[in-house]
Amino acid sequence: MKLATALNHGCLCHTLDAHQLQAQLESDPALAGLAQHIVQTRPHLFSSSAVFLAQNTFDTLVATVAAIERIVALPAYRQQALARAPAIAQHAFGPLGVHMGYDFHVNEDGLRLIEINTNAGGALLNTALARAQKACCETMSRAFASYTPLDTLAQTFFDMFMAEWRAQRGKQQLRNILIVDDEPQAQYLAPEFELYRQLFLQHGVLATIADPKALEWRDGQLWHGNKVVDMVYNRLTDFYLIEPAHQALREAYQAGATVLTPHPQAHALLADKRNLVALSDSALLAKWGVSPADRALLGAAVPPTRRVTPDQADSLWAQRRGLFFKPVAGYGAKAVYRGDKLTRRVWDEIVAGDFIAQTLVPPGQRMVTVDGQETDLKFDVRAYTYDGQVQLLAARTYQGQTTNFRTPGGGFSPVVVVPQLSELTKLSQNLTRQEAV
After folding, report:
1. What is the pTM of this model?
2. In angstroms, rounded to a whole number, what is the distance separating the alpha carbons of residues 183 and 302?
3. pLDDT tens digit string along 339-348?
4. What distance in Å separates the CA atoms of residue 323 and residue 326, rounded to the nearest whole number?
5. How is the chain split into domains, by residue range?
């Protein structure tokens, strides 16, 4: 941990090879111009600096994800989580949900889980970013040895979608997949939709990007134009498909007529923030039969979390400076509040709404250079997972209350897992600030 912290504070090198990033983003001729489009329209999507993570912290992260997935499989946990979810979340057709996102704050006190997301974006973008890094010096070259096989990661992601398909359709052939989001071309991560479309096409699966308003439910099938939709990669933030514009998709999913991933039940079991209350309650976990080892792991990794209820309003208000408040169905840092910045007006809205109160955990700190000036940024770490296995890590560096992709020098950053090597320990002891290259 000390070594990774020293590197995050002292290694000011720019490790991003912009030409290599362009080559990675435009690996297919159909993607020509994508890198320049990102530079022009999303100048703070990618950071030029890596974030460093200690090997033991990485090991704890992997173990925490696996422990949570074991707990989610328990009947008592599932019963509680699904009892408060809408009827659509009761459907289980087999798929688990692609690209679960576990978001952590990492600082000198260790690793803390902040939230879990069902349709975590950025996996393919961060794969390209990770492949476009260069070691800033010879001593650091071993630290840049990846914890995951980057050359085969895109194949791993495709295999994940195929596993979802087979879980519901068995040996039937997957003919097409629809990548769905509201106004997809207006989404900040829209460039990634093109990367996924090309990934599917390269494997012989017809892929299209679509707005759900273009879908039709008729004759017991989901239609997009003149084609029946086999599978939907769901990037919507209407997690339970409640909005009228999503009615066709809702009908098709409930009928099992299309394979939808991620799906409402995955959100109910993992991403509903009320689940953090249970995951931070050691006594409840013990009652459910969770092992002492897993309880100890979650006790250290999951910050104490409570529901905001009117009967606890006065107590929570008094403790607000040490709390962070989030809506139970929120996403993308929308309507989240640091307790020390709350006004009475906003507090009344929180009490009347459906919020959790999570013990405030400071994010990590990463020193970077922007236009020759040293700047201290915050960062979190996202683990992209499937079936409890960590596939890729990425950091988001930023200034402000939450991640925003508007910070010069910030954006997605690759995560370098620092091995416990004597030569790198020596580096941390002698580390001096370097000029950005």
Report:
1. 0.93
2. 35
3. 998 999 999 9
4. 10
5. 2-303+361-430
